[in-house]
Amino acid sequence: MIQTIGVEGMTCANCVRHVRSALETIPGVRELQVDLDTGSATFVAEVTIERSALAEALDEAGYALR
Description:
Blueprint: E1 2-8, H1 13-24, E2 29-35, E3 40-45, H2 51-61, E4 64-65
Antiparallel strand pairs: 1-3, 1-4, 2-3
Helix pairs in contact: 1-2
């Protein structure tokens, strides 16, 4: 299943790298693309990923789920 989420707080390429690293820690996330221009992340989920897991991973990295 393909999922797209909004990410608040990204301002540069370094932010994209941090968001990518944070989301890659979530089991089941693969083929991850993070887009600075749209403030979004798109990924293939092998299993259902709870919004709370996404929000927690982003929060720990200093960003917010939109």
